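Weekly modeling sync, notes
Attendees: AB, CL, MP (scribe)

Item 1: holo prediction request
CL wants a bound-state model with adenosine-5'-diphosphate before deciding which constructs to order. AB pointed out that an apo prediction alone won't tell us much about the pocket. Agreed to run with the ligand included and paste results into these notes for async review.

Input as submitted:
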Amino acid sequence: MATFATFKRLKDKGVAALKQRDYVEAKPYLIQAAECMIELAEENKDAKQRAEQEDYAKELMALAKGCDRKAKHGGGARRDRARDDEDGGPSAEDWIVKDKPTVCFDDIAGLDDVKLQIQLKMIYPFRHPELAQKYGIDVGGGLLLFGPPGTGKTMFAKAIANELDATMFVISPAQLMSKWVGEAEQNVRKLFDAAKAEEKAIIFIDEVEALVPKRRGQQSTVMQRVVPQILQELEGFDRKAGRALLFLGATNEPWALDSAMMRPGRLDAKVYVPLPDAEARFKLFEIYLGDRPLDDDVDFAKLVAVTDGYSGADIRAIAARSASRPFLESVNGGEPRNINMADILAVIEAMPPSVSPKDVRKFEQWANAAE
Ligand SMILES: Nc1ncnc2c1ncn2[C@@H]1O[C@H](COP(=O)(O)OP(=O)(O)O)[C@@H](O)[C@H]1O
Ligand SMILES: [Mg+2]
């Protein structure tokens, strides 16, 4: 079982090796640390923390990937020294996370009207550029996904990239702030240059409120320099040049976001990603329980009825925890058995929804006001 101590040991070893420019040594530690972090994330009840841990794991994986390239270019050799950041961290290429996600709209339960909105605004104009031009419809643009944690916003952003067959560039506030990045402005420029070189690109900023908080005082000095630059790059992006750029943000705290970010040309379209309704919860149980061995007494309609207020991430966790009950029993020598209704109900009983009704009302109010 993953523990934080194990994670830290692996990560420290990986980072120490990176600093020594021993990329061959660093890579397996970074991968193991990332895997350990993924396990910790899966066990975490707090959806926000879990998302952070998943992001962190992704960053470690990106660092690990960067090791291959560096090792090829004579990693460990002293002549690399001049090209790297002074503190021995990875260069801008490692900071730019290019992603070709594989998750698609069909993997996402519910949110049909959200999918439709995205198709209208983003997917059809990309797929039919001549028609879009004929009717004077801009290709690309900005879109803010907002809603409670664990409702699939990050997943949705990836699915959009996949549906569009676009390369996704991820700007992670955590990465921007991390000590690895010495030359933040330069890196932002490189990121936009790389995006412009693609025929279709998505620039995705997850937890965008961390980058552009309402109260500037909460912003680090790096952000105070870099955010205006990001906005400027966005405005300078030539939308009519046939190259399409989609600027996508996601937030669990839309009210903490500076309204400057929502001006025309920025994240000007907003889409509410709510908690799953009954139909979506049914699909979520199908997705996350469907492929596991289930007892005949498992009643999806009943599960849907007792999980009003639970998020998609909550339901995924319910499925994983329910499966671990018979699994642990069989590991301890018991006869392998199916997951039954009692397992699942016990897990639900012990696990309240991660989003409170009070918070849901706050989102609904913000959504209505934003219309
Ligand atoms: N509507 C959904 N359909 C399928 N899976 C979902 C859905 N919502 C959440 N999940 C599951 O929960 C995980 C966490 O969701 P995430 O996209 O990180 O939520 P958010 O970004 O809104 O906080 C996803 O990776 C997915 O496994
Ligand atoms: Mg997220």
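Recorded for review: Strands lie at 97-99, 141-146, 167-171, 200-206, 244-251, 269-272.
Action items: CL to compare against the apo run; MP to circulate these notes.
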